[in-house]
Design goal:
alpha+beta, HIT family, subunit A, 5 helices, 5 strands, about 45% helix, globular
Length: about 160
Amino acid sequence: MKKCRFCEIINENREKEQVIYENNKFIVLTDKYRKTSVGSICLVIPKQHKKNFLELTEIDGKGIVPVINIVSKAMQKAYNCNGIRIWTAVNKEAGQSIFHCHIHVLPCGSLKDRIIAGFPGIYDLKRKILGKHKLSESLNFELAEKIRREIRILNELV
């Protein structure tokens, strides 16, 4: 059986990831392959393996909303943008490529961002044509640090 990439990150292999936020039930990572014109795309991931969004319990749902909320608000401040797109895919037919529930949170600052966010499969098509390219580690760190800084500020206000 193939190992789950997110379970590996959650349980053992984080050193190459930019962890934005974490609590006992969820972890938030930057997408190291994609960004919008204004900043990092984040993935909100339950630590307990769930195949997709439909497997979340009501309790999971109540826990994930505050995480998405703080990440979204931090992105707005960090990247000086009002637009945030939140989406997920359920199963291959909808474009799910990693079968561990995750919610994409995208900062949107332009029409291009809205188009990309509205058609998530465009990334998969681009990768098939151009190959898979990671963001540089320094850029990924810089963009992630902006969000982490804003989350620290937001947490101080609570």
